[in-house]
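Practice problem 4.
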């Protein structure tokens, strides 16, 4: 793998372990957080810390050398707030100006399968939620640029590390409709990004979900059992659903998922 400098905009649940992994591959990694109080966590794994805050009207950057990198990885999910489908694309437009000014030629944008509606048709995007609309608009802004190439990764629901899947369903007292899941483990997220860098796969839009899609009842019942939590209530009431296909990613990257079935994640967790 070619070495160089990679900047990760948004070092949170995914960005920190990703940076640590890429450092192990020989890269120098810059990482951004929204407060200098978080610098210690980044330094502890070898990431050079920067403070960058995206506001609706501007981007606050403590040190512009963050953008002196061969690759920029954008990992900043839009918050679920009113008007985000207008605010987030505006933030991305400001970011594009910085990317062009710095001369960055390669970008990875972490998106989400929320850009697809339930019961979606292949290659037809009709996001239902504001966050999905915001991501879809941001994708198009980045893809339309001629000064740099962007590969877009549409991750499914994120599991692994300290995210206990069983707790996802405890916030609601309503029965969960028993439909297929579209999930991906943190380890696969990291290794897919690494594969894109290694194979120089730019200008693509890729779905990234485990190839197998167990039913929610099977997945979350097992998650609850492993965690010692009450089993959620499930409903077989008919509801539209989507199954996200990652075959393009598998084919282009020759990628083999660590967790082909999300239930495999529970191996070694008392299953």
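Answer key:
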């Amino acid at each position: 793998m070619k070495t160089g400098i990679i900047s990760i905009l948004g070092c949170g649940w995914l960005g920190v372990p990703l940076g640590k992994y890429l450092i192990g591959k020989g890269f120098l990694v810059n990482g951004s957080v929204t407060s200098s109080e978080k610098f210690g966590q980044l330094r502890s794994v070898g990431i050079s810390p920067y403070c960058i805050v995206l506001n609706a009207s501007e981007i606050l950057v403590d040190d512009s050398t963050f953008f002196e990198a061969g690759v920029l990885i954008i990992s900043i999910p839009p918050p679920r707030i009113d008007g985000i489908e207008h605010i987030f694309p505006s933030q991305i437009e400001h970011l594009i100006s910085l990317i062009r000014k710095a001369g960055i030629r390669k970008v990875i944008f972490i998106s989400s399968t929320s850009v697809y509606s339930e019961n979606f048709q292949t290659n037809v995007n009709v996001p239902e939620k504001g966050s999905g609309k915001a991501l879809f608009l941001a994708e198009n802004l980045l893809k339309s640029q001629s000064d740099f190439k962007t590969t877009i990764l549409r991750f499914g629901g994120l599991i692994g590390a300290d995210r206990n899947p069983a707790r996802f369903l405890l916030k609601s007292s309503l029965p969960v409709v028993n439909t297929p899941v579209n999930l991906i483990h943190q380890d696969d997220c990291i290794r897919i990004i690494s594969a894109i860098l290694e194979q120089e796969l730019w200008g693509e839009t890729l779905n990234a979900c485990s190839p197998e899609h167990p039913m929610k009842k099977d997945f979350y019942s097992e998650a609850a059992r492993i965690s010692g939590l009450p089993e959620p209530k499930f409903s077989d009431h008919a509801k539209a659903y989507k199954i996200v296909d990652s075959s393009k990613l598998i084919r282009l990257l020759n990628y083999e998922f660590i967790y082909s079935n999300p239930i495999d994640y529970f191996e070694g967790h008392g299953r």
